[in-house]
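Quick start: what a row looks like.
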Amino acid sequence: MRLPALSIAIAFSLGIACGLSPDFTTRTHSREFLAVAVATCLLLILAALAFAKRHLLLTAGILSLAAWFVLGVTAETISSQPKPANYIVNLVDSGQIDLHSPLRWHGTLRDEPQLLPWGTSIEIVLTAVDYQERAVAMQGGMRLTYSAHPNEPPLPEIHFGDEVTVIAHARLPQLFRDEGAFDRRAYLRSQGVDLTAALRSPQLLQLVASSEPSPRRTLARIRRDFRESLSALFPAAPQEAAVLRAMLLGDRSFLDRTESVNFQKTGVFHVLVVAGLHVGAFAAFLFWTARKLRLSRTWTSVAVVLCVLAYVAVVEQRPPVLRAALMTLLVILTILFFRRVELLNSVAIAALILLVASPALLADSSFQLSFLSMFCIAGMAAPWLDKSIEPYVRGMRGWRDVTRDVSHQSRVAQFRIDLRSIVSWLEPKLPPAVATRFTEFSAWLLSLGLRVSEMIVLTIVLQIGMLPLLARDFHRVTLSGPLANLVAVPLTGIIVPLGFAVLITGVFSHPAALVLATPLRWLTALLLHSVDWIAHLQQWSYRIPSPPLWLVCAFFFFAVILSIALRMATHSATYARRFFFACLLSCAALIAIFPFAPGWRHGSLEFTTLDVGQGDSLFLVSPGGHTILVDGGGSFIESYRTAEARGPDPGEDVVSPYLWSRGFKQIDVVALTHAHQDHLGGLTAVLENFKVKTLWIGREVDSAPQQQLEALAKSRGVNIVHELRGNQFRLYDAHFDFLWPQAAPEEIAPSAKNDDSLVFRLAFGERAFLLPGDAEKSAEQSILANADRDALRSDVLKIGHHGSKNSTTLEFLAAVQPRLAVISAGEENPYGHPSPLLLERLNQAGIPYLRTDTSGAIHVFTDGKIIAVNCFVACPGISARLNSPRAQAPDHQQSDQQQ
């Protein structure tokens, strides 16, 4: 077997994948399965020895792989045991600890406090919490953030491993309950962060005991010193310093969002993620240095191994870094023992080691992308290059030496002969002083061209091979990747070793580090300007929905078959390579174009209230498939945090993934109810990610965010329409009546107000929906005074202003007479929405209601007669109640003040 490690890694991974399957694990008790797995392994070994007489090796190999498969399932079953009862999330879920008020937390620092653009981040390993006058022992982690206020004392001096106590109002990380939304809570939990909290004052954080000196504490301080050193070396170049923090130390917290998006658009975001490219550049620099110092092979290997281990200890210990480090160590060992390493086997060994240590990594996107990239290089690019360009690259070495021709393939030997013939014809025609130099320079250019061709092929193979996972996880197709990587990869190969040379020099001499920092800043600025220029090339990067599972499976099937065919030397393999390459390109084209129709119910009107936290975002699909997005949510900024400390962008993290999960690439209408951040903030990402035809706006407002949104819409060719009271709109069989605001089209409001919200009623068949935005009492009273009560009646009412007590009065409810109320509010929002007074009004009127903070995304469908409701979190029984005969609504004449 030529690739034994690869076969074992695949069998072990398939076992883990089966163990990760919910249906598989729920049917198997862990202890019982462990006993069965061990017994199965023993039986397989005995079967191989007892019954394999003629084909012992083949039978033993098959049974061995079966044993590795069982071991994979066993490893996943063991690693996925439930968390202990005192795990903080279990304590919260079981109600043993209530997070609705500040508590005193005890723990130790996981790392050095990390400076952020707007403050400080402190990660604490929790050990206990004071709750109800007793200390409750626990396990878990907390991320504490602090934004300094003027005239406040600094934070106490704390370091890695120190024991601290802090009084803070901790929360579970924000979770958006929508189809396709990014699970930020699970992501942070994988990093050891179970709770997040903000420190209101430095006095609330106290040092209990300092940690003892240890290697981990030393490494943490080195990491902190390196970060601070980069900021000190580039005080006038914050962008370059931010990029260097990411490239050298894996810290992307200072990276501007625009720059981050530009790196994504150009397909070179991998240079900001410490991975194989960085470890390889660092190791290559070490080998070059050792060669210049004329160290022996043994001492070179030892020095490189120690430096790589130190490098991994200082930067992030993430799957890409660990994979690259393991592969580097394997290559060094093979060089030390004069062995040639099979790249696929090296990749497989690295994957196997990581999976044995943590089987759950198989489901990690970073792990998948890291090893898929290596499969693309080792499985497809390397074999193809070995058969095409690489022989000519080797043939350029010593091309003037005739005696070396016999060591090359016949076509390469002929290439060398032809090259020498051209040179012998050309040199006599040139001046003697420049003839030799010119021909040597031309040969160098030819060699460089071959190397560039290799890089182009490698980049194209990576772009094609990683397309399914990039489309699934990031919904982006980047056509400029080969061009951008031609610039970014060589620059990264120089920046990484030079950057660490600057950091290490700075430990001994800051002036000397400043001298080395000058070319480093120039190179980083060149990288930034190149990426920015390529990112502004129109249509070279665009967003797409997630590809269907069957298409992804077909893509990887053809990729594996093509990889096998590339390693075959027979004549028939040539035709097989062409066929499977065409099949692979066809699958890639389908993924990149995504010609599939989106998912929607034909003949039904859909009204979906998305969970975007403390904000609004509604998605409507007409019976004919036309789409309308009303608001896009927005970043919620707490009062004690600065604007730079904003949370997730619902437009990018919630609304867009939800639409992509259903296969939508364009939106017919985007409607902005009013220019408040919790409605407008996410629409920027929506306009950038989708083809939008029309933007509805109510009253024009002298608001910078709204003006920026309109400017973005105009730049993308979106038609802007102002919808005001009295306007009507028909979409298929759905009819829109705009009830508010009432203003002249040219009138501009001085500021955005809730009572300027765009309010409209949507009717289809016998059913109607009323969407009032954030309209409050004043707007409701004006609507009631100027509208026919029959024209207001609606089956579904989206409650105004997230359930504020100042909206949805009893009189308004009596006029609308909804069968269902939908409330969009953030979980544990500081405003207390929905208000208990509002909920009392709904209960008093006998109106059932659903809330996004408890039910997640709420989907309402109607064919014009029957209403069906389902939620992200199950909400049974609602549909039957909505389709019962409408009872006569009580006539509520009392005002809210009387209530």
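That is the whole record. The chain has a mean pLDDT of 85. The longest helix spans residues 432-465.
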